[in-house]
Amino acid sequence: MPVTDVQQDLENRTLTIIADFAAPVERVWQVYADPRQLEKIWGPPECPATVVDHDLRPGGRVTYFMTGPDGDKFAGYWQVTAVDEPNSFAFDDGFADLDFNPNPDLPVSKNVFTFTGRAGGTRSTFVSTYESAEALQKVLDMGVIEGASSAINQIDGLLAG
């Protein structure tokens, strides 16, 4: 399994996930830069994603929805704030209605995804910061660690394919 560490820090309002992949940084970057590849790993296996819009540049927006096993759709968006291809990108990630309007009742996280070359591949560090400890606790209670870990663990299969 690629996920090697998960740390939640309510005091600093962060969730950090570290994963290692046996692929170069540029290849791991492509998973996020290509919407068709992103669909294969954004969301747990039982809730596959469909990327509707994909503009991975500062000021760009990525919109998507996940489809649950019973057919229910859950939408979200990224508002891209920074890109340093292929090393990192930052974005605000929020929940949305099916027209991709932000849902003000659910937390928005500020995310920085960093890809660092190392012997044998890439270390990926995913850091999400929330506005409050309560917002972080809300997504923890919703299963964000399990969902994000199972989503990230799908990357190995995509890289091998």
UniProtKB/TrEMBL annotation:
Would you identify the family this protein belongs to, as annotated? Belongs to the AHA1 family.
Q: Which domain of life is it from?
A: Bacteria
CDD domains in the record? SRPBCC_CalC_Aha1-like
Lineage, top ranks: Bacteria, Bacillati, Actinomycetota, Actinomycetes, Mycobacteriales
Query: Taking every annotated instance into account, which residue ranges of this chain make up the domain Activator of Hsp90 ATPase homologue 1/2-like C-terminal?
Result: 22-159
What InterPro entries does the record tag this protein with? Answer: ASHA1/2-like_C (IPR013538), START-like_dom_sf (IPR023393)
Q: What is this protein called?
A: SRPBCC domain-containing protein
